Amino acid sequence: MSNVVFFDGVDDTVNCGGGGSLNLNAAFTIEVLMKRTSQPLVTHEILGRWGGGNGYILFFNAQRPSMYLNGAADYANNAIFPLGVWTRIGFTWTAGGNLRAFKNGTLTDTLAVFAACGDSGGNFLISGTFGAFSPLPGNIAQIAIYNRVLTNDEILYNFMHPGNPIKRGIQLNLTQDSIQGVQWLDLSGNNNHGTYVGGAVPQVANLLAGR
Fold this sequence. Notes:
Layout: E1 2-8, E2 13-15, E3 27-36, E4 44-51, E5 54-61, E6 64-69, E7 72-74, E8 87-94, E9 98-103, E10 106-112, E11 124-126, E12 137-146, H1 152-160, E13 170-174, E14 179-180, E15 183-184, E16 194-197, E17 201-205
Antiparallel strand pairs: 1-12, 1-17, 2-11, 2-16, 3-8, 3-12, 4-5, 4-11, 5-6, 6-7, 8-9, 9-10, 12-13, 14-15, 15-16
């Protein structure tokens, strides 16, 4: 048994602060192992760092994970992400390059994106309420964020080894094993520890496949 973090879709958030290591304005890889618990009727935010028209947001639009970069909504995942199933979402992006989407370690879509990703100066929130975005109804077990684009092989490796992700370039590393006490501890060394807000709480869950 291990822990996951439960979000009720109403007011539950994890706040990881405004550390500069999560200002991803040149390139990024974002990976999230999660399970949705209800069908979104609006755009539910998974995570993001946003403010003043700058930043990035990963969110669900219906059953499709999507990215929002500096006010440009870029939909780059045509794969269906069903309710009640643990699934690994992945996105990579580089300035002036492509946005690539992954499901369970496999590339599902590529989109040419020319949007920038400026520094928002805001806090990094998991299941936040940026503008029209609403909190997420679901469970999250792991989040890994990098300041570089991981290769397809690296994305597949992280899917196969979720408890031991690749470390080079990692800026945020939240795992099942680091869900402790009043904080979700960041194992990246950047001290982007997450504080539970509004009722977001760790819950005991079965160990996930691949650990």
